[in-house]
Amino acid sequence: MEYEAVIGLEVHAQMLTKTKLFCSCSASFGDDPNANTCPICLGFPGVLPKLNRQAVEYAIRTGLALGCRINGKSVFSRKNYFYPDLPKGYQISQYDLPLCSGGNLKARVLGDDGRVAYEKEVRITRIHMEEDAGKSLHEASRDIRSSLIDLNRACTPLMEIVSEPDIRSAREASAYLKELRQVLLYLGVCDGNMEEGSLRCDANVSLRPKGSEKLGTRTETKNVNSFRFLERAIEYEIRRQEMILSTGGTIVQETRLFDANTGETRSMRSKEEAHDYRYFPEPDLLPLVVSEAQISDISARLPELPEAKRQRFISDYSLSDYDAGILSSDKVLASFFEKTAKLCGDAKVAANWIQTEVLCEVKDVETELPKAKVTPETLAALITLIQKGTISGKIAKDVFGDMWTSGKEPEEIVKSKGLVQVSDEGELAKVIDNVIAANAKQVEQYKGGKQSVFGFFVGAVMKATQGKANPAVVNRLLKEKLG
Ligand SMILES: [Zn+2]
User: Fold this and answer.
1) For a designed S-S bond to 347, which of 82, 121, 317, 359 qualifies (C-beta 3.0 to 4.6 A apart)?
2) CA-CA distance, 178 to 183, in Å (whole number)?
3) From ligand 1's centre to the CA of 89, what distance in Å?
4) Beta pairing partners, 83
5) pTM of the predicted model, to two decimals?
6) What backbone torsions phi and psi does residue 145 show, to the nearest 5 degrees?
7) What average pLDDT does the chain have?
């Protein structure tokens, strides 16, 4: 029997607020263990949580960007469970009345060639806010195994973005997560750092006979923290469930963990149902009420989103879908491109230079590009030198390399190194005459009809002028002289 995978993702995004969700402790990552804690986030009895306004705005901003309905009234609940990293015994979350409902995101799914094969629309079920739990650190020292608890992360603000089970393959899942991460970065509500856990993903996977509408039993693979791991975890889970179903077994509903070393998922615990948590309304927080005015104010301040930018790059700059996709994939890169294009007046050339030379030099666009010594201004100046015929495209690549390390202006480099392109016909004619005189054998071949020898002459002239000859002029003069 042929099976179809049914996949839904739950994404936890840590919101980029300075302080935690219900207290004024710092929400920064990597500080000394337990440095950022107070009676509220430690859950001491009798303390009162106070909701972070910025976090609410970030969640609404995200909801609006994803086309969700923002609920005027939402409610916080206590999700009760015991875990060492949650000493107060419950997590404040939203349950039956979340801040945002509905919505959708269009993901661009790549084919084997790395190009966009098709677009996939994934519906969003809900976005709710919740506090994070602490972190357990397991250490072995002096033959004693000890577990330590760091509560810096306790009470940091999370958005949980839950999708409908619309995803059908591992590739679609990672395309969705990539697009979602881009949107969050554009909105400035999450730093998207998967290694540090600011963006984590749980994958719900089930299988059903192809053509069937009924959902199969699902498993949830927890906290996958890279695109590659997400694809591998889902692929493994699909294979595992297929094997069980095709041999007549049944899938156990459970929570699983992905092991990056073995590439396998393994059982962590049997899946809890919502009633196991005994959700009840958080008695210390009033229902969250947001007004229409607040929502429209936030809506008016939404930045241009990746999809809109991509479309605009295609229509305004006549870029291909592929180029527009790359150049809009990052806010910093997109603005670098746009500035360069405007300054040099040729978007296509600017796009090519950025995609080849610039992206070849930077690994992390977000952090490295703003500090690069080549700026949109100097790159545009370099492109202008090529357009004016001052230097050839080939020489320009060397000048770019120099600009990248020295930070000098392109004109300065061209002048000091004597790289100005030779377009003077008299000067080039002399060089060409010398080349023709020195290569009688090739001239004979060319005149005998061997067209391919022409390239040899161009190369020889270029070599004689250290690459500075204007190729267009060389081509024309050579044709004239060779007859
Ligand atoms: Zn605190």
Assistant:
1) 317
2) 9
3) 16
4) 86
5) 0.87
6) -90, 125
7) 94
